[in-house]
Amino acid sequence: MRDTMVKINDRYEFPLQLDLDRENGKYLSPEADRSVRNLYTLHSVLVHSGGVHGGHYYAFIRPTFSDQWLKFDDERVTKEDVKRALEEQYGGEEELPPTNPGFNNTPFKFTKYSNAYMLVYIRESEKDKIICNVDEKDIAEHLRIRLKKEQEEKEDKRKYKAQAHLYTIIKVARDEDLSRQIGKDMYFDLVDHEKVHSFRIQKQTPFNLFKEEVAKEFGIPVQFQRFWIWAKRQNHTYRPNRPLNPQEETQSVGHLREVSNKTHNAELKLFLEVELGLDLRPITPPDKAKEDILLFFKFYDPEKGELRYVGRLFVKSSGKPIEILDKLNQMAGFTPEEEIELYEEIKFEPCVMCEHLDKKTSFRQSQIEDGDIICFQKSPQPGSDEEFRYPDVPSFLEYVHNRQVVHFRSLERPKEDDFCLELSKINSYDQVVEKVAQRIGLDDPSKIRLTSHNCYSQQPKPQPIKYQGVEHLSDMLVHYNQTSDILYYEVLDIPLPELQGLKNLKVACHHATKDEVVIHNIRLPKQSTVGDVLNVLRTKIELSHPNAEVRLLEVFYHKIYKIFPFNEKIENINDQYWTLRAEEVPEEEKNLGPQDRLIHVYHFTKETSQNQMQVQNFGEPFFLVIHEGETLAEVKVRIQKKLQVQDEEFLKWKFAFLSLGRPEYLQDSDVVSSRFQRRDVYGAWEQYLGLEHSDNTPKRPYAVNQNRHTFEKPVKIYN
C-alpha cells in the first residue's frame, strides 16, 4: 500500500496454553514428532514499544511457570500480573476513560504502540528438564568471577556513599603538581585540583594525624610539612592565601574544612610547602613573619613559545624585585647578569590582565601579596632583528586564552572535517576568511562564505554568515548558550559583498509538453521584480511558442498558495521552504468567459492517524478552468488528457470537492461549478477538486523542506 516499512499494531490474541495436536495436528510441520503430546505453555513475551524507525524492547517472563510474571525492562525488574503480560500486549486500540462521566461522551480511542513481538512457549513434556534449578556450578567460571567483582564494586560504592557524610576529601597540591601542569595542562593560575593527590579522611581526625598520612604517602616527615589554605579571590583566581597556624593544626579536618570553605562542599584544598636544603633533602620551613610574602614564578621563553613553572620564593614586602633578579636567573638557568623583564599575572577571566612589574618599586607599593604569580622572561635585546610570534608574556597569555582550534567542513560535505586551523577567538571576520583562503589556496578571500554550526541538529545553520556580519570568531561559533568548534565554508563564483546585493532564487520550470522539470538558479539584484525573473527565464527555457505567457507560482506541500504579480519585488520571496514554480499560462485560461471559474486541483490520499482520517496531498497541483454547467464526467475527460493517465489506472480514481480537508465525493452527473460558487473564499487553496488515488512516487526521508524537490517528473538542475 505505501511501498515502505510499517509496524502493524493490529490486535492479535495469544493463549496461555497452545495445543498443537488439535484438529489432527494440522498446525504441525511434517517432520514434527507426533508420538509426544504437543501441548505448550507460554513462558515469555517479548514486547516492542514504538514504531518502525525506533523503539524499545522489554520482556515478561515467568521463570517457574507460577502465576507470578516478572517484567525485565533494561536494569529494572518488576512483578506483574498475568493481565499485564498477556491481554495488554495483544495490540489494537485502547479507550481512554471519559473525562466527564455521566455525559454522553464518545470514548477516545488510540492505537497501542506497545505489543507482543515474539512469544516463547515450552512443551509441557519438557518443562521439568528446561525449568530446572540453576546451581552456581552451572554458571561459567568467567561469569561467576565477573558477577562477584561487580557485586563487590557495587557494595563498595554503596558503603562509600553511605559514609560520605563522615569523611572529608583533602586535595593536596605540591610543587611537583605545579611543574607537571603549568605549560601543559594549564597556563593560568597554579594548579588543577582535580589532578592532584586526594586523601579521604574521617572528619573527626585531628589534622596532626592527617599529616602522618601525608608523610607515609609522600615520604616527607611531619616536622618538614607546612600547609597553606587556598582562597578564591574577587577576580576569580585561586591562590594559596595563608599557612595554617599551630592551633588550627590541632583541630579536626572536618572543622578546618568548614572554616576554610565558604562554598560548603566536602573538600579541603591545601598547598604543601616543603623547603629543601643544599642536599635537596627536606628541612624545617622558615618562620614566616608578617612582612614575608610567598610568590610563585613562571618563566616564558619567546623563542620556543613555552611557559613553565620554575619555583617559589619568600620576599619582604618592603623589598624590591631588583633584589631577587639573581635568584630568578638561577631558577631559569641563566647567568646572574642576564637582563630579565617581570610581569604580574593578575587574572584571566573574562579577559587576560598581565602587567609589567617595575623592578625598582617595592612589592608593597606594587600591591604584591601572598600567592601572587610573577612571570619573567629575557629582556629583548636592543637592535636585535629577531622577531617572535608572541614576543612577551602578555601577548603569549592573550594568545593562549583566546586560541581556538576550528574544524572546517565544506558545505557540500557537512558531515566530514576538511581541515583544522588554530585561530584566535578575537580574530576578525576578515582574518578568519583570509586564513581559510590561504589554507585552500584561494587568491580572493572575499569569495569565501562561512556558515555557523547548529549544536542541536548537528547541521549547518540555514542562513550563512553575512559579509563582515560578525565582529569576531567567537561570535561565529556561538549557538544560543552553546559554543561549537565547527564552521562550514563554500567558495563562491563572485565576491560575497557583491553576492549579498543579489537575490538567488531556485525556480522549478514545468514544461508545457515535455515530461520533465528543469530547476534554474536565477540571480538578480534584490530590487528586481517577478517580471524580471520571468524575462530571464524566457531566455533559458523552451517555450511552446515565442509569445507564450509565463507565470510564477508559490507551491507548498503540494498546494498552490499564490500566483505572483509581475511587479512584486523578489527581495522578500522565500524559496527555502516554498517551491517557486514557473509555467506557461494555458490558452484556455486567457479567454475565461464570465461564468468560467479557475479552480485548484490537487492529488490526495487518505490516511488514518490516531484513529482519525487525514487527507494527505501529494504530487503536482494545477489550475483548471471549469465552465458553467459542466459535469464531472466532462471535467474528467479533460483531466485525463491533461495528465495523460491510462484508462485502466484512471478508472480507479475518485473525485471529491474538498473544503478545509473534508472530502465530499462527486458523481459523474454532478455539476462541478456549483461547488465553487463563492469567489471571495479566504484561503482559496483550501477549496479544491481532489483526485484521490494511490501515491506511487518513491518515499523520501522526511526533511523540513522536503517539499522543495519532490517532483513527479524527471528533474534537471542548472546553476
TrEMBL record:
Pfam families: UCH, USP7_C2, USP7_ICP0_bdg. Keywords: Hydrolase, Protease, Thiol protease, Ubl conjugation pathway. Residues 1-124 form the USP domain. It is an enzyme of class 3 (hydrolase). GO terms for molecular function: cysteine-type deubiquitinase activity. It catalyses: Thiol-dependent hydrolysis of ester, thioester, amide, peptide and isopeptide bonds formed by the C-terminal Gly of ubiquitin (a 76-residue protein attached to proteins as an intracellular targeting signal). Gene3D superfamilies: Cysteine proteinases, Phosphatidylinositol 3-kinase Catalytic Subunit, Chain A, domain 1. InterPro entries: Papain-like_cys_pep_sf, Peptidase_C19, Peptidase_C19_UCH, USP, USP7_ICP0-binding_dom, USP_C, USP_CS. Belongs to the peptidase C19 family. This is ubiquitinyl hydrolase 1.
